Amino acid sequence: MQRPEPELIRQSWRVVSRSPLEHGTVLFSRLFDLEPDLLPLFQYNCRQFSSVEDCLSSPEFLDHIRKVMLVIDAAVTNVEDLSSLEEYLAGLGRKHRVVGVKLSSFSTVGESLLYMLEKCLGPAFTPAMRAAWSQLYGAVVQAMSRGWDSD
User: Fold this and answer.
1) Using one digit for the tens of pLDDT, what is the confidence trace for 43-98?
2) Cβ contacts of residue 116 below 8 Å, gap of 6+?
3) DSSP H or E run through 57
4) pLDDT band at 23 (very low <50, low <70, confident <90, very high)
5) How far apart, in Å, do the first and last CA atoms of the chain sit?
6) Count of alpha carbons within 13 Å of 132, Cβ hemisphere only?
7) Is 19 helix (H, G, I), strand (E, B) or coil?
8) Which helix (H) or strand (E) element contains residue 48?
9) d(Cα 134, Cα 151) in Å, to the nearest integer?
10) Is residue 129 classed as helix, strand or coil in its secondary structure?
11) In this predicted structure, what is the pLDDT of residue 35?
């Protein structure tokens, strides 16, 4: 697998990372549109959200969005050496498996990530940039998926 194009990724991420919460909310709104079954997995203090809006406006979920954006930020920072995040990402995979996330849902997360980047960057989101992000995300999911295999 060829390495993602680091400069394209960094350049596009600089724009997104100026307002991570706003763009992270776009990502998760899209995710819930594509896979509504994921909403019930997000519960805080055993409270189910009655709607996507309810979830997206809760402080706990906003905190989750911030964490997800930080993970993407770490992947961007280490784009040339993702192996340095290997253990961390496998652990993250384990945590997601424990709460009931299916590995297959990560392809929907990938689609939502690309959607968010396209919405944020507009015409600046070129096919080459899309390909670079797809490669980076694929590598991250590959590392996280080890958390499904190991116990």
Assistant:
1) 877 778 889 999 999 999 999 999 999 999 999 999 999 899 999 999 999 999 99
2) 16, 23, 24, 26, 27, 30
3) none
4) very high
5) 27
6) 20
7) coil
8) strand 47-48
9) 28
10) helix
11) 95
Of the candidates 84, 76, 82, 85, the residue with the CA atom closest to the CA atom of residue 6: 76
> Among 108, 115, 86, 121, which Cα is nearest to 37's?
108
Residue 47, H or E segment: strand 47-48
CA atoms within 13 A of residue 79's CA, in its CB half-sphere: 21
Locus of tokens 């997206």 = 56
DSSP designation for 83: G
Asked if pLDDT for residue 3 goes beyond 70, the answer is: no
Rounded Cα distance between 1 and 87, Å, is 20
Element (H, E) at 65: helix 59-77
Query: Which of the four pLDDT bands, split at 50, 70 and 90, describes residue 1?
Result: very low
The Cα–Cα gap between 107 and 3 comes to: 19
The amino acid that residue 12 corresponds to is: S
Q: Which two tokens stand for residue 39?
A: 């909403």
Q: What is the pTM of this model?
A: 0.91
